[in-house]
Predict the structure.
Amino acid sequence: MQPSRLVAHAIARLERSAREKVFRHIGWDIVRPAYVQFVLTERCNYKCEYCSHWRMEQYADEISLADWKAAIADLKKLANPLAIDFTGGEPTIYPEFSKSSNFAGPRVSTGS
Ligand code: SF4
């Protein structure tokens, strides 16, 4: 990790810690998320032995790209930087995965 990124990471961590202390000691809710995980789809194209996803008889409805964009925009107003993890099922089979990951920003990871 580059020194500037390391310093930025340390400052963000200190800020989160301070916000949590304020909430615990004074009760002001200024705590902000540093990380969110979105289940883009419950569907999966693998059949891992230990997993229940591919055995599901019915999957939850998938949220539209417009709704994901609105949710991500709202979250970025609340907390920025924000690490976003797309998961599932297999998030890359969500029909508009590349568009949603482009919109989310540079700190995106998937589970597989
Ligand atoms: S959701 Fe993950 S663990 Fe489950 S079958 Fe798919 S790849 Fe495997």
About this structure: Residues 1-31 form one domain.
